[in-house]
Amino acid sequence: MDMNLVAPCGIDCANCELFEANGRRDAWERAAARRGCTPEEMACKGCRAGGGCVFFSGCETLACVQSRGVAFCSDCADFPCRRLMPLAEGAGFYPHNLKMYNLCRIKAVGFEGFLAEAPQIRKLYYKGTFKIGAGPQEPAQ
After folding, report:
1. Which pLDDT value is given to residue 1?
2. Residue 61 contacts residue 8 (beta carbons within 8 Å)
3. Cis peptide before 80 (omega within 30 of 0)
4. Count of CA atoms in the C-beta half-sphere (13 A) of 67
5. Cross-strand bridge partners of residue 136
6. Contact (CB, 8 A) for 65 and 73
7. What is the tens place of the pLDDT at every residue in 19-50?
8. Where in the sequence is the domain holding 32, given as residue range(s)?
9. Is residue 139 part of a domain?
């Protein structure tokens, strides 16, 4: 079971085009051009193995999880805390709502159970449609 597939905050690292195991050199090159570094520096190992996010340094959430000695934010007695509170700003770009759902599923079914569900969660999140009162709907075939 590879804990690097999911960040402590619930971000689905395995779904990111910068995740090293996905081998998306084209994505690493695009990101490196924006950051002024090498593509290899943008090949993310996940924040657990890489010591943080390749996009920014000083993640308060990662530092908090490490200081509390928990694997995921959802393992903390203070879950959910202010660091995980969703905001409308950036909601179309940042996967904040998805990470909260991921943490709730990890808490409910465990990490292995979550990994089994993850492909369906990704499919609905990225390709499904939303229906008020019913939640995500399967994408049209």
Report:
1. 65
2. yes
3. yes
4. 6
5. 130
6. yes
7. 888 888 898 899 889 888 899 888 888 888 88
8. 3-134
9. no
**Cβ distance 118 to 10 under 8 Å?**
no
- Dump pLDDT digits (tens) for 40-84: 888 888 888 888 877 777 889 999 999 999 999 999 999 999 998
User: For residue 97, which of 131, 126, 117, 60 has the smallest C-alpha distance?
Assistant: 126
31: in domain: yes
Please tell me the distance from the alpha carbon of residue 79 to that of residue 68, in angstroms, as a whole number.
12
Identify the H or E element spanning 121: helix 96-127
Give the Cα separation of 48 and 121 in Å (integer).
22
Count of domains observed in the chain: 1
Note whether residue 140 is domain-resident.
Answer: no
3-class DSSP state of 107: helix
Euclidean distance between the first and the last CA atom of the chain, given in angstroms as a whole number? 32
Between CA 116 and CA 122, with CA 118 as vertex, the angle to 5 degrees is: 155
Confidence of residue 105 (pLDDT cuts 50, 70, 90): very high
pLDDT at residue 69, as a whole number: 96
Domain assignment present for residue 17? The answer is: yes
